[in-house]
# Entry
Amino acid sequence: MTAVELSTQMPAVAAEIDSADYATRICASRKLNMRDPQVANLAMPYLIRLLKSEKKYVPEKAAYLLSEAGPTAVPAVPALVEAMGDPRASVRKNAIFAIWHIGPGAKEAIPALVKALDDRSGGVCAQAASALAVFGPDARLAIPRLIRLLDAKYSNDSDYFGLDWRHHEAAALALGAIGPEAKDAVPILIRRCRERVSESFIFALGRMGPAAKEAVPVIVAALEGRLQISALNALGDIGEDAAPAIPAIAKRLDDPQTRLSALRALAKIGPAAVPALVEELGNADPHRRAYGAIALGRMGPAAQAALPSLAALRGDTARGGPDFSSAAMPHSVGQWASYAADCIGGREPLKDLLR
# Structure
C-alpha cells in the first residue's frame, strides 16, 4: 500500500491491527511498508496509540512495526520508553527491540534501558543489553549494571542472577561498544573467556584497547580455534601491549584465510612487529612480499627500521598485492615497497588495502 492510499485507509488498517484475531492482525500489518518513510510517518501516530492496547499481542505488533521503520521512528521513542513499563514482559521486550532498531537517535531511552537490565524477565534483560550496544560510549551510564550482568552466575533459573550465556554475551557486546571506559570489566571478560571462549568476549576485550593487555594470553589461546579472525582483530586493537602475541600472529600469515587479519594486527602492534613483517618481504610469493610492504606502510613512521629492506625491493618487478585496474596504482612488489617507504616518511596510507 502506497502512502497516498494509506492516507485515507490508515484508520481502518489500525483497527485491523488492533484486532484480537491473529490472521486479521497479520494481514493488516503486511499492508504497511514501514521502510518507506512516508508510510512510517503516516502510520506512526496510530501505532503509538496501539502500544497501549490491552489486547494480547497488539502492542507487540505495533512495536515490531515501529522497529521496521528504523531511524524514521525516532518520534515514537517516548511512547516506546513508556511501553517498557508495561506489566507484560513481551510488550517490554518488543519495545526495547524497536528502540534497538531505531538506533543512536533513540538515546533518550538509555536510562530506561539501564533500568531494564534489572528486569526479572530474562528476555527483557538480554534485549536491553543488546540494545545498549548501539549507543556506544553514550551508554556509559550502564557500565556498572552491565558488569553486574556479565558477572552474574550461570544457572537454569529464570531469575536475573543466573540466566544463560546470552546475557553474558549481550553484556559483553554492550561493554565492548562503550570501549575503554568500561575497562573494569576486563578481569570478568578474561574469566568468561577461560570458561567458554566466545566471539563476544573476544570482541569486548579488543575494544578495551591497551587496558586489556592482561587478556593477551587468553586471546592468543583463541587463535587455536574457530575464532581466529576475531582474536587477531582484538590483538590488533590492544596495540603495542599485544607484542607478546607476535609469534602466534605471524604463524597465521601462512594461511590465506587469516593472512590479511594477521597483517592488520601486526601493523597495529607497531615497532615490535617490524621484524615479522620484514621477514614477509623475503617470501617467495610476490603477493606476500607486496602485502608485507603494505602492512609496513600502514604502520607509518613506526616502521623506520624496515626502510633498508624496502629499499632492497624497489627493483622487484613481480606483480603482487591488491589488483587495481588503475595504471596510477602500484602493481608490482617494487612499487608497493616504494609506496610503503613513502608512508613511513609521512604519506597518508591508502585505506582498506588489508581488507
